[in-house]
Backbone:
């Protein structure tokens, strides 16, 4: 990691605060922490446990799961820009990060007590946990412009996603040990995941600095009014942010496809290929390792070539992976698809975050990463709702083949864009 970084925002009377390696490490630790939640609760254990144990095999379970994930993201979609503005004005990103991480951890631990027939209790807890997780993800990402420059944002974002996949891998090992220790112990993995998230996020809360300075409100002003004023300002500024707006549109499409796969891959493995829980965990362990390689390698590539090449390559990988999965017949094939998906997932998410970082104006990282969160969660709403209901109405193979369209549309919008890649472009 680089100790050096460009001067960061600070009051005119104060010198810039240098970025040290331990602070970048602390920032990366949050990706390490929160990946346990998405890996175990949303992707690997959550849906199979919900369908088999809690919903007792009800064929509508996938539709309920997809709708619940979509609803949780609707909440983030509506509140993320407002939270971002409040965090900027009040210089309170770190406080919101701690609160949202704690809520996600507690709700995840409470899933331990959910048993057969308690459908709405599990859906409600996962809704709260996923809302808090997504909010914390947005807030943590808003620190990226403060600890990086356009020249190294891809690399530092790649460090974070690489740490994230290592965290996901460790959480899978813990879950495998728990599930293999005896029958009916999958719910213990939820308690372990909530505790993992909380403990692993502590380095972030201890090492990451709140570099913004408060901007006091005028008498009679309210945060909601300030937020709406900044939205109005953003609307007037749209012509000068045209490239970022178009990128957000492309990102919405391809992340819809990605979020659908994240939410339903374990269900596909169970229903189509009859994979056991241990095999599914092994599959996602392979995916996590491939994700480390994708995020780390493509992060360096982005800093050398700009973001378009790694993004386009990742989208092509995802198109191939989805089409192959729709025709997959064996567990071995699915493992190979998992390697492709992991490489594509790591590079796609890392590069997307870095693009937003390089296009964010000084002093407005919370606001602009609120917009990033808005479009990312809109994508999750669309992807999980469409995929879940397609599975309920047709089957997994048709749903995953149709899911390819999200990546194709995203690629077609991305290709004409001229994305800024280095300090010389700023």
Residues:
């Amino acid at each position: 990691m680089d100790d050096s970084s460009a001067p960061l925002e600070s009051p005119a009377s104060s010198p810039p605060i240098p970025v040290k390696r331990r602070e970048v490490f602390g920032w990366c630790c949050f990706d390490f922490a929160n990946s346990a939640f998405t890996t175990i609760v949303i992707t690997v254990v959550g849906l199979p446990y919900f369908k088999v144990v809690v919903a007792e095999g009800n064929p509508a379970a996938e539709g309920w799961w997809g709708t619940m994930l979509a609803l949780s993201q609707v909440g983030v979609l509506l509140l993320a820009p407002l939270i971002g503005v409040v965090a900027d004005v009040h210089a309170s990103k770190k406080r919101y990060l701690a609160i949202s991480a704690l809520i996600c951890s507690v709700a995840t631990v409470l899933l331990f007590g959910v048993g057969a027939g308690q459908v709405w209790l599990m859906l409600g807890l996962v809704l709260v946990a996923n809302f808090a997780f997504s909010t914390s993800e947005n807030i943590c990402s808003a620190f990226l412009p403060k600890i990086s420059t356009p020249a190294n944002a891809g690399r530092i974002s790649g460090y974070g996603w690489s740490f994230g996949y290592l965290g996901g891998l460790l959480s899978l090992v813990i879950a495998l040990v728990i599930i293999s220790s005896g029958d009916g112990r999958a719910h213990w993995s939820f308690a372990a995941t909530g505790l993992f998230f909380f403990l692993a996020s502590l380095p972030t809360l201890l090492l990451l600095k709140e570099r913004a300075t408060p901007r006091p409100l005028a008498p009679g002003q309210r945060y909601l009014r300030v937020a709406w004023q900044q939205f109005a300002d953003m609307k007037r500024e749209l012509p000068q942010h045209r490239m970022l707006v178009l990128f957000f549109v492309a990102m919405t499409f391809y992340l819809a496809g990605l979020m659908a796969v994240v939410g339903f891959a374990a269900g596909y493995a169970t229903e189509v290929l009859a994979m056991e829980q241990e095999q599914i965990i092994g599959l996602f362990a392979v995916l996590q390792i491939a994700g480390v390689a994708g995020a780390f390698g493509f992060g360096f590539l982005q800093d050398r070539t700009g973001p378009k090449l790694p993004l386009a390559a990742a989208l092509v990988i995802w198109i191939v992976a989805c089409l192959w999965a729709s025709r997959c017949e064996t567990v071995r094939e699915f493992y190979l698809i998992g390697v492709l998906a992991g490489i594509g997932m790591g590079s796609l998410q890392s590069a997307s975050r870095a693009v937003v970082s390089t296009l964010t104006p000084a002093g407005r990282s919370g606001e602009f990463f609120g917009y990033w969160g808005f479009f990312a969660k809109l994508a999750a709403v669309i992807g999980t709702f469409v995929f879940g209901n397609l599975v309920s109405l047709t089957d997994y193979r048709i749903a995953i083949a149709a899911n390819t369209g999200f990546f194709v549309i995203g690629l077609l919008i991305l290709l004409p864009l001229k994305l800024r890649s280095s300090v010389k472009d700023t």
User: Anything to note?
Assistant: Confidence is low (pLDDT under 50) at residues 1-16, 421-426. The chain is about 75% helix and 0% strand. The chain has one domain: 21-213+235-425.
